[in-house]
UniProtKB/TrEMBL annotation:
Described purpose of this protein according to its UniProt entry: Decarboxylates L-threonine-O-3-phosphate to yield (R)-1-amino-2-propanol O-2-phosphate, the precursor for the linkage between the nucleotide loop and the corrin ring in cobalamin.
Alphabetized GO MF terms: pyridoxal phosphate binding; threonine-phosphate decarboxylase activity; transaminase activity
Pfam family, one: Aminotran_1_2
BP GO terms, sorted: cobalamin biosynthetic process
Cofactor dependency: pyridoxal 5'-phosphate
Protein name: threonine-phosphate decarboxylase
Classification lineage: Bacteria, Pseudomonadati, Pseudomonadota, Gammaproteobacteria, Enterobacterales
Top-level taxonomic group: Bacteria
Length: 357
């Protein structure tokens, strides 16, 4: 079974279901769909299929840099944030890395490919699945070359305390530890700019961003990395495989930051539906829910005899099991916040599964 959500084709084939009939709660994609301007742009740019994209993606980098008020020498775009996870690991070649668990699987996979020694730092229920300042003690004890942290975290959806994040930035900068912060879901938090304002004063901070989730373009794939270490960015650009971003994705990336109405509509949808799902799921005594900060919720089923993943699949609803995340077991799940009618359908199915009706 896939380590990621969104595996509609694989699941439908394995269980003999119609892929079109499944409602996918397993992938954290904006249910508003891509902005209309994206569809229009692609339709009007079909002739570009006959041309190579700019191998240096100059204009795309300029647009990203302008959006974050920095120089383009501090930005590298990629075929999704995942490409850049592998690229930064290949460049840094860390001998020892600290990973917070549970966490996104591709950090570990990228590090394993180059033989990095990985030390896990478990996030447990006792600490609310959140890192605290004791993480600094761990860094001091093991002296890693790099640390990955996601803000908000995937799969828990929790946003670490700002004091902890700032302490990490300062400690890693002082001690020459590469701090790779994955902000793939931070656009869903309207009042949080993340750490990008700090790249002007840091050399060991690397910030990953994804445009795939927020702007609903997983089929195009687009992400970027920002760092104040322009030497690293330049070398990553020199070493990368050419044309890793297709022409349509590059063109789309050039307009997304101007989609102010779409961005506002997304935040409005999330405020409403995140609140709805949180309240509805919290009403089930069979579930323990952690408060969400992004567009997905993390919970545990307290009825071990119920396989919630398979039970919901019978209702043609696909959720994300979390048993393959380090530190979690088959009681833990993650669901995306979708449209009102889809969220209502999920709650109705759960009521039937738990015999509420």
């Amino acid at each position: 079974m896939s380590e990621h959500g969104g595996n509609i084709i694989g699941i439908s084939q394995q269980y003999g279901l119609s892929a079109d009939a499944l409602i996918d709660f397993s992938a954290n994609i904006n249910p508003l769909g891509p902005p209309e301007s994206v569809k229009t742009l692609i339709k009007n740019s079909l002739a570009d299929i006959e041309k190579y994209p700019d191998v240096e993606y100059r204009y795309l980098h300029q647009v990203i840099a302008k959006a974050h008020k920095c120089d383009e020498t501090k930005v590298i775009a990629g075929n999704g944030a995942t490409e850049l996870i592998y690229a930064i690991v290949r460049y840094l070649k860390p001998k020892r890395a600290l990973l917070l668990t549970p966490g996104f699987a591709e950090y570990r996979r990228a590090l394993q490919q180059i033989g990095t020694k990985i030390i896990d730092y478990p996030l447990t229920e006792e600490t609310g699945f959140q890192p605290d300042l004791r993480l600094l003690d761990m860094l001091a004890a093991i002296k890693p070359d790099c640390l990955f942290i996601a803000t908000p975290n995937n799969p828990t959806g929790l946003m670490p305390d700002n004091q902890v994040i700032q302490a990490l930035v300062e400690y890693c900068e002082k001690n020459g530890i590469s701090l790779i912060v994955d902000e793939s879901f931070i656009d869903f938090l309207p009042d949080n700019r993340g750490l990008t304002p700090q790249i002007s004063t840091t050399k060991h901070l690397y910030i990953l961003r994804s445009m795939t989730k927020f702007f609903a373009i997983p089929g195009l794939r687009l992400g970027y990395l920002i760092s104040g270490n322009t030497t690293v960015i330049a070398e990553m650009k020199n070493r990368r495989e050419p044309w890793s971003i297709n022409a349509f994705a590059a063109k789309v990336g050039e307009i997304l930051f101007e989609e102010h109405d779409y961005i506002a509509a997304t935040h409005q949808w999330l405020k409403s539906q995140q609140h709805y799902l949180w309240n509805q799921l919290s009403a089930f005594s069979e579930l323990t829910i952690w408060p969400p900060s992004a567009n997905f919720l993390f919970f545990r089923c307290e009825r071990p005899e119920i396989d919630l993943w398979h039970a919901l699949l019978k209702h043609q609803l696909l959720i994300r099991h979390c048993k393959n995340y380090a530190g979690l077991d088959n009681r833990y799940y993650r669901i995306a916040v979708l449209s009102e009618w889809e969220n209502q359908r999920l709650i109705t199915a759960m009521q039937k599964i738990f015999s509420y009706s």
